[in-house]
Amino acid sequence: MAQLMTGMVTENTPTRVQKDRRQRSSGLLPLTAALLALLWGGAEPLYAGAGCCEEGQNEVLTAFIWDYSPVGLPLQFGCLLSAASLDLEFKAAGGWAQSVRQNKHNWKLDWTVLDHFGVDGRDFTYFCGRGIVGGIVLTANPADNLVMSSEVDFGDVDLEWVVFDSSLTLGGGTQAVDSWGKNAFKGLHLLIGWKDSRLDGNSGGEFADELIGGDSFVAAWMDSDGGCSGQASGTTQRILAEDWATLVDHVHGQGFVAPDPIVDGIILNFTHDC
Amino acid sequence: MKLFETSMTFLILIQTLSGQAAAQERGRDYVFPQIPPYQSVLPAVRPRLVVRELPSVPASLSSYRLKPAEVNEDYARKIASALGMRFTTRAPQGGKWKVAEAGTEPSLDRSLTVYEGSGAFTYTLDNLIFVPAATQPVLPSEAEAHDLAVRFLREAGLLPADARIGLDQVRFSRPTLIERDTREGRDLSQIVTNLEVRFVRTLDSYEVRGPGAKLYVIFGKGSRIVGVTQVWRAIERADASHPAIRPEEAIQLLQEGEGVIDADPACVQAEISAMEVVYWMEGPKAEQRSVLPVYSLEGQCQDGSGRETGEFQAFAPAIRNPPVPTSGPGE
Questions:
Q1: What is the C-alpha to C-alpha distance for residues A148 and A133, in angstroms, rounded to an integer?
Q2: Chain B residue with minimal CA distance to A87?
Q3: Does any CB of chain A come closer than 8 Å to the CB of residue B229?
């Protein structure tokens, strides 16, 4: 699948439409985005492990990609806004060790074999970028740019909640759900994302605003003033949960958090239309 | 934080200018609303579109001017009062007025968000909405839910005059929770947690779509209303009449890279099952001033061998700029 994707997005001779898209994305936009990242101050590239893995500390990782040019796809700025807003909400809440990775500094290893230094070393990981059914698309290595459900095991270190704010990542039928269920849930409480394609907007910031305001993860994602606020009516969300108790989890400091669940291969699959 | 917000504004401005410049570069003469791109992995080349039935479209279509939202404390207070809530907030934060009211018991805790940009609001019973139950809650029938929703909105003074309220005009949505054994590959139970009544809006008989076209009443256990969402900007007047782009031209524009599409990377051809004119309304945070028509296309993607690979959706330009009026003799 990774090879297929690579072939699709990088090896084809650019067509007129591709060139056209690249032209539209060029000029001031990358400069502006770079300036923004600099001003934000949280978006400096961090090596895996920075701000990571202190026992007993609340840790959040904000991972996002807006520059998909390394894999031949247009720039999209919604994730920059989404990730920055989410990061600022956690900063305002206080009590969180925060780390941020953007663009090519999101490495596949951090999501897979070295995830104990990467995503699994945090309590909460938020990813915003492009997705496909059963996976997310990274840009660090165009030859191997997908993280698929079959390659992950979350929660065997510290990770409790993952948000994939990316189109279709939690989409597909029962086979796709089973793959996430069997592979990702190794202590993980909730896997949150989209069954459908999402519009490029600030769902992360609105979601975090509700989460830090005291909503549960499920309510913050599904509320029309949360994760749904920038999405058209009918866009379907999906949340996978290890058990009933984790479905009412709040982020640390804002309410109930279930004890780490028993991994039994039985999960809950909650779908909702925005 | 201020610096960040300023730079965000700068980014949005640059994006807008860049989009306009791009359209001018190619000499296009159409008007297209601010529809964000889909965050998916698109095919390298836009798929060929096969449309079996083209919509019948008049020679001209209207754009509409929206009434500027005057969302101040009085407005937010009025919404809170309509929902029977005490208004305790002093100032909006991040473009939103937020009201929270603790009930005499946790199940009665309520909250309200009112958006400054649009006047939209979200009302929830925080400990009841989207809360899973291990057994199927008793929910109202569709007819009961429809009747209760219309009555509730009308009595609260929150039913827009242009909402389509017939039982056959509303839509129903059911958040659903499935307990699944992923090792055995079978469902163990299925619970519909809520029933949502969704009202449709039309302009000139064309449906209004997008993140800014929402009016929902959400029911929970025992037919209790556990949430209301309204994003429904008021129309001030028809703004201008625009020459309509023919459906064939719109398809051509899409294939040339204009408009917005969502398709999977393997999509070589899309069989379009529905093509229609809709009006696009932006999300609740946006200060939208006018509403424009676009073509909406939906269908199925196919790869090179004709195998279905996923859903296809797109929005294509539907109108041109109005012709510049020429001065008559003696003027």
A1: 9
A2: B1
A3: yes
- Low-confidence spans in chain A with pLDDT less than 70: 1-55
Residue A255: CA atoms inside 13 Å, Cβ hemisphere, count?
21
Give A103's Cβ-side CA count (13 Å radius): 19
| 8 A C-beta contact, residue A114 and residue B34 | no
Residue-range domain boundaries for chain A: 2-273
The sheet that has A124-128: what strands, in order across it? Answer: A97-102, A59-64, A124-128, A161-165, A190-194, A236-241, A266-273, B176-181, B186-192
Give the helix/strand (H/E) hosting A273: strand A266-273
Mean pLDDT for the stretch of residues B82-110? 91
- The contacts of residue B236 (CB under 8 Å, 6+ apart) are B64, B65, B66, B67
Residue of B10, B13, B15, B40 for testing the chain A interface, max A β-carbons within 10 Å? B40
> Which residues are within 8 A (CB) of B267 and not within 5 positions of it... i.e. 6 or more apart?
B43, B47, B301, B302, B303, B309, B310, B312
Q: Where are the beta strands (DSSP E) in chain B?
A: 48-51, 60-66, 96-101, 110-115, 121-125, 163-164, 171-173, 176-181, 186-192, 195-198, 200-203, 206-209, 214-219, 225-231, 235-243, 260-262, 269-280, 290-302, 308-317
Alpha-carbon gap: B322 to the closest alpha carbon of chain A (Å): 25
- Which domains are seen in chain B, by residue range? 28-65+237-317 (2.40.128), 73-236 (no CATH)
Closest to B219 in 3D by CA, of B284, B166, B141, B155: B141
Tokens 């796809």 belong to: A73
Burial A162-188 (b: 16+ CB within 10 A, else e): bbbbbbbbbbbeeebbbbbbbbbbbbb
**What ipTM was reported for this prediction?**
0.90
Span A14-32, pLDDT tens digits: 222 233 333 333 344 555 5
Are A229 and B8 an interchain contact pair (Cβ–Cβ within 8 Å)?
no
Within the 164-203 window of chain B, which residues sit less than 8 Å (CB to CB) from chain A?
173, 175-185, 188, 193, 196, 198
pLDDT at residue B133 tops 90: no
Taking an 8 Å cut-off on Cβ atoms, the answer to whether A178 and B22 are in contact is no
The closest alpha carbon to B289, from B114, B71, B69, belongs to B69
Cα dist. B220→A233, A236, A237, B53, B309 in Å?
20, 19, 19, 40, 36
**Residue B23: φ, ψ to 5°:** -65, -40
CA–CA dist A168, B123 (Å, integer) = 28
Task: Calculate the alpha carbon distances from B106 to A92, A97, A257, B102, B217 in Å.
Answer: 26, 31, 17, 7, 21
- Rounded to the nearest angstrom, the minimum Cα separation between A170 and chain B is 13
SS3 B105: coil
Interface A-B, measured as beta-carbon pairs within 8 A, has a size of 219
Residue B331 pLDDT > 80: no
Closest to B196 (Cα-Cα) out of B164, B169, B223, B174: B174
CATH number of A2-273: 3.40.50
